[in-house]
Amino acid sequence: VKPRPATIESKVVATGTIGSRQTSNIGPLVAGVVETISVNVGDHVRKGDPLFQIRPAQYEREAEQARANLAFANAQRDNARRALDRITKLAADGYAAQAMLDDAKTAYDVAAADVARREAELKTAQRNLEDTIVRAPFDGTITKRFNDEGVYLTNSFRGGTESSVLQIQENRIVVAVVFAPEQHLKSLKLNQKALVYVESQPEPRESYVHVLNDMLDVATRTVELRLPIDNSDFALKSGQFARAEILTEEKTAYMAPRRAVLADESGPFVLVKKGDVAQKTRV
């Protein structure tokens, strides 16, 4: 037989779980009663789509009151402006004391400052009214529902789900979070190509090493790797078992049929024909 050149691939096998690219528990931006929930578990949403609404009546009244307060402040400022103009003219003609002019300027400055304050209050009230509708922060899938309509929620988040309504995950791109034995650490590098096998899928998914954790798990003596996977078809689900084959080295070697490779106590060898002699050659 004649040896043939071939490409040899060295691989590291790592196992783990499919996870979402990002996950957020979505709660209200303003306190109130959940009036409507527009989505259900399993729905795909786009960034900016409405998810649920807090009852807006209170915030509509506050916005209306803020607009009225601003209109009143504008009227007072305009009145102070006219008074200042009159006193300024009288003072220029010598018919008004400097103290009167100073008081008129102060009254106008106070009225102008009140207008600025009322404008800020109106912006806050309008923002609160807009925030009664909670929208998707990114493209994703609704994966959990924690509360229903009629529940009063605050916007004081305490880190749990008691103040959340929905959970959204970005699953258009998922991540295989896998762990490789410590012994392979020196062979692993960022951007190495990989194939990810998932039980429900007939073919592996192509990926690469995007994250290589600098810290080893002391209990299992493994290193964590994260491999992004295109999941535009939404076939992969968070929590599925994943097995990754990471290509760590690629080199050219000569291959011979297994029957041509023999072995003794010193290791493998082949018999190479040298004229009429079979010469033992270590491989």
Q: What is the element layout, followed by pairings?
A:
Layout: E1 4-26, E2 32-37, E3 44-45, E4 50-54, H1 57-92, H2 98-130, E5 133-135, E6 140-145, E7 152-153, E8 166-181, E9 193-198, E10 205-208, E11 211-217, E12 222-230, E13 241-255, E14 262-264, E15 267-274, E16 277-282
Antiparallel strand pairs: 1-8, 1-13, 2-4, 2-7, 3-6, 4-5, 6-8, 8-12, 9-10, 9-13, 11-12, 14-15, 15-16
Helix pairs in contact: 1-2
Written overview of the protein:
There is one protein chain. With 283 residues, the chain is of the alpha+beta class. Strands 1, 3, 6, 8, 9, 10, 11, 12 and 13 form a nine-stranded antiparallel beta sheet that branches. It has a four-stranded antiparallel beta sheet with strand order 5-4-2-7, with no helix packed on it. A three-stranded antiparallel beta sheet has the order 14-15-16, with no helix packed on it. It is elongated. It starts with a strand and ends with a strand. The mean pLDDT is 93.
Distance between the termini: 15 Å
Beta fraction of the residues? 35-45%
H/E element sequence? EEEEHHEEEEEEEEEEEE
Q: Compute the gyration radius: what is it?
A: 36 Å
Summary tags:
283 residues; alpha+beta; nine-stranded antiparallel β-sheet; four-stranded antiparallel β-sheet; 2 helices; 16 strands; elongated
Compact summary:
By secondary structure, the chain is an alpha+beta fold. The protein has two helices and 16 strands.
